[in-house]
Amino acid sequence: MRKPIIVGNWKMNKNNAETEAFFKEVDAAAASENATYGIGCPFTDLRTAANNAKNLIVAAENCHFEDSGAFTGEVSVPMLEELGIKYCIIGHSERRQMFGDTDETVNKKAKRLIAAGMTPILCIGETEAQYDAGETEKVIRDQLTGSIADLDAKDVANMVIAYEPIWAIGTGKSATKEDAQNCCAIVRDQVKVMYGQEAADSVRVQYGGSVKPGNIVEYMACPDIDGALIGGASLKADSFMEIIEKTK
Questions:
Q1: Is the pLDDT of residue 172 over 80?
Q2: What distance in Å separates the CA atoms of residue 93 and residue 169, rounded to the nearest whole number?
Q3: Which of 10, 53, 61, 165 has a CA-to-CA distance to 94 between 20 and 30 Å?
Q4: Nearest CA to 160 among 217, 202, 128?
Q5: Active-site residue 64, yes or no?
Q6: What residues make up the catalytic site (predicted)?
């Protein structure tokens, strides 16, 4: 059985004081043997989050694939390791659309994280135009092919892949449970095509896109959805705790 993983993605929100207050309020509620709960927070909040996390996992929201060098404003995997960070979100659509991330660079980041023993939470998803054009499956398969190329099957089995339709991120729109299940099943099938049935059976696939307390249960009931990557609903302690309680 795959252990569900539900992670909030704060994006560019919360300072250290707000982070400490959130973790002190929420962390105890995240104690569970049946699921993993966590928060992806800005680089400046990571130490505070890690120091206040006993049950929640803490994820970085990005990393660079080089260990050091002339990359102004970037943060390396060894810098995250020093803080005890074990998870990192990579390939988020906002990074791809606004900051030039490509399947190739996401693949390099995945390889570097895996080499450090960290777990990538690797994001893929189609735009509204691609969705309307009926290109969803092609986009999912193409992005995955580039983003998880040349990895070991056991490493793919242990990573997390987040399917996030771009048209559903921060828009209030959300995929139907049928569409979300179908797309997460395509993710799992592409892993099978590339790395075999065992990896496909083991890899955890999240759905993301306007997930909230009111729809989390129906998504989690889908056989190929193993968790969620949650934006706005993870910023408020009460709504995130409600999600936790509904999925324990």
A1: no
A2: 9
A3: 53
A4: 202
A5: no
A6: 92 (electrophile), 164 (proton acceptor)
Catalytic residue among 64, 92, 94, 126: 92
Q: Amino acid letter at 54?
A: K
> Would you say 170 is a known binding-site residue?
yes
pLDDT tens-digit map of 34-52? 999 999 999 999 999 999 9
10 is in an annotated binding site: yes
Does the annotation place 210 within a ligand binding site? yes
pLDDT at site 169:
81
**Domain covering 5-246: architecture:** Alpha-Beta Barrel (3.20)
Q: Is 92 one of the catalytic residues?
A: yes
Residue 62 assigned ligand-binding role: no
> Are the beta carbons of 153 and 198 closer than 8 angstroms?
yes
Which of 164, 178, 198, 242 is flagged as catalytic?
Answer: 164
